[in-house]
Design brief:
Length: about 190
């Protein structure tokens, strides 16, 4: 605990620590989990399994599917207890690795990376919770064009996808910074 935090009254320290930059990504991840739990709860409460509500004909439906596999229905036809052990174990390892990365203090330049990891952490936790509690993951967003359907997904899947895109953006920006740094070093010679 830093000296600045120790100077706060005991009752205020948790709030100050939460506002510490290191913990902000965990708040973002928690928001993702809460939104994921809320939307899945609405679907399970108000839509029967495998029912469809057409929102935009030919493009967007709300459905209620239970996916025993991973994102976008992959491994959904695999059977046996090994599937659940592997999926839960892999998800747990991802949560631990991302949490460890986020707990390291980062610079302001790392804000895109930290946001990316926060989205992935929240999405992975949301789907892991479903898998442990229900044995399946509730998916409900279905996009399609005519007869071509994209596999149903949920808020957690969307957060993981947003996080992956932000990771790509961060890698691209890091490459641009390295190229610029090398160019500036060559000019100085």
């Amino acid at each position: 605990m830093s000296e600045a935090i120790r100077n706060f009254p005991l009752f205020a320290r948790p709030v100050v620590m939460l506002l510490n930059r290191r913990f902000v990504p965990f708040l973002l991840a928690a928001l993702v989990v809460l939104l994921d739990r809320f939307t899945k709860g609405l679907i399970k409460t108000h839509i029967l399994a495998y029912d469809t509500i057409t929102v935009i004909p030919g493009l967007f439906n709300i459905v209620h599917t239970e996916n025993p596999g991973i994102a976008f229905g992959m491994l959904s036809t695999a059977t046996g207890p090994w599937r659940d052990v592997v999926l839960i174990g892999f998800s747990g390892a991802v949560l631990i690795a991302i949490s460890a990365m986020l707990l390291r203090s980062g610079s302001r330049r790392d804000s895109v990376l930290r946001a990316a990891l926060a989205f992935i952490l929240g999405g992975a936790f949301g789907n892991l919770y479903d898998r442990i509690v229900n044995g399946t993951v509730t998916d409900f967003v279905e996009l399609h064009s005519g007869q071509h359907y994209f596999p149903a997904f949920n808020v957690a899947d969307s957060a993981i996808t947003v996080g992956a895109c932000l990771l790509l953006l961060d890698m691209w920006r890091a490459k641009e910074r390295r190229v610029r740094h090398v160019s500036e070093a060559n000019i100085d010679r």
